[in-house]
Input
Amino acid sequence: MNYSSALVQLPLVRESSRQRVRTPEDVYGVCDDLANLAQEAFHVLSLDSKNGLINRHLVSLGLADAALVHPREVFRAAIGEDGASALLLAHNHPSGDPTPSAEDLRITRQLIESGRIVDIKVLDHVVIGRACDGSPAFISMRESGLCAF
Output
């Protein structure tokens, strides 16, 4: 069995030219390093008003099949540090199957509603797995129609 370690590196400074993140493919491009983790990791991408990436935050590092996520932790950095206008959510499924679970749908709906309260739009939640036998490497809850964003 091959076990790997993952180093998580968070930026210390904000770059002046911001990468635009508009599509699920863009989210995957920013977060594709999650695909091979042995634990679930929940990340938040903070965006400015033009969908420029302000920052990427690790909100929760969980177990092989779950990560504890709460709206307070998701919106803390977006409000306090980043002054974000919108968020994109991303997390991985270590199994490789990106199909959202019932809990993924529940927390996403809760985060969408929390975003409405603090006036920060949640644009999408992308679940990252691994492409295998023609299956996708990720699933967008927005594009799949699983949640009303």
